[in-house]
Write a structure and sequence with these properties.
128 residues; alpha+beta; three-stranded antiparallel sheet; 3 strands; 12% strand; elongated; disordered C terminus
Length: 128
């Protein structure tokens, strides 16, 4: 897990409404309309919270067809365990460093030199 993923996870659980969503889903999967009724929340707002939880890997959504042919979006909790300590933060930062591309250097491995200044005989500096 890198720092971006850690921050997404912390952000997902760092909101009272999203904690309520997790609480409702603790007893099993629910379709969005039922979950919205239980939480007394609009579906668009609920979808925003579910999206954050899903991106953090805390919930999983699946589209299913009901017996009468209606498409229902069900959500359920993904198995997770949160453990935050200094080692978790340091591991995320180390993952960032190991995934970062190497810094660019000049041909000989030194610093990159700026382009040479234009002289009076340089055609790039004249207008016609």
């Amino acid at each position: 897990m890198n720092s971006e993923q850690l921050l997404a996870l912390l952000s997902a659980v760092g909101h009272a409404q999203r904690l309520r969503v997790i609480g409702e889903l603790a007893d099993g999967r629910l379709y969005v309309s039922e979950l919205a009724r239980r939480l007394e929340m609009s579906r668009p707002l609920l979808y925003m919270h579910l999206d954050r939880l899903e991106k953090a890997g805390l919930v999983v959504g699946r589209l299913e067809l009901s017996e009468d042919g209606k498409a229902l979006k069900y959500f359920e909790l993904a198995p997770f365990e949160l453990k935050l300590n200094v080692a978790t933060v340091l591991a995320a930062l180390q993952e960032d460093r190991s995934a970062a591309p190497p810094e660019k250097t000049g041909d000989a491995g030194g610093a990159v030199e700026p382009p040479a200044a234009k002289g009076p005989n340089d055609p790039r500096g004249t207008r016609t």
